Automatic annotation (TrEMBL):
Biased composition (Polar residues): 136-154
The organism's place on the tree of life at top rank: Eukaryota
Start and end residues of each stretch annotated as Disordered: 135-154
Name of the protein this chain belongs to: PTM/DIR17-like Tudor domain-containing protein
Database matches in InterPro entries: Tudor_AtPTM-like
Length: 154
């Protein structure tokens, strides 16, 4: 049987990164050479557990306020991420029925609802800053300091 392609010819594509006009993505043609030697320098940084943990403490608070949906028994319950515990690396979720649960990232990833992309990033950022300021004020760290207007609190 004759096939319409020839195995002897290789398609000659130049390795590189290309932007496609009108498309939000880029095309990466080719992969870097992979060496079996452990001592070989890799152009890609290796993510260690320490780096991953520090990223969690930076990114974790950005999930506060996000919605989750989890199956308990035969019913789905909606909840909201209320807090990220930096010490333990867990997300505290409060469900609509009042129950509270702490989830690790791999558990949260399974129940996290898609983000509403209609909200501008600037709004999310300013809301995050406001929450942070409220939590600082609630913890009493602002006593003896200055207010936002720069007036000394006695």
């Amino acid at each position: 049987m004759d096939f319409p392609f020839n195995d002897d010819k290789e398609e000659s594509l130049v390795p590189g990164v290309f932007e496609i006009p009108g498309e939000p993505a880029v095309v990466i043609n080719g992969l870097p050479p992979i060496s079996s030697s452990v001592d070989t320098f890799s152009p890609f940084p290796t993510v260690t557990d320490a780096v991953e943990e520090s990223l969690d403490t930076v990114i974790g608070p950005w999930f506060e306020g996000r919605e989750v949906r989890k199956l308990f028994g035969n019913k789905y319950y909606y909840g909201e991420i209320t807090e990220f515990g930096e010490e333990v690396g867990r997300f505290k979720v409060k469900y609509e029925n009042g129950n509270v649960e702490e989830l690790e990232w791999n558990e949260l990833d399974q129940v996290l609802q898609p983000l509403n992309l209609n909200i501008p990033l600037a709004t999310i950022f300013t809301e995050s800053i406001r929450r942070k300021q409220r939590s600082i004020q609630k913890s009493g760290k602002s006593k003896g300091g200055t207010t936002n207007e720069g007036v000394k609190i006695e």
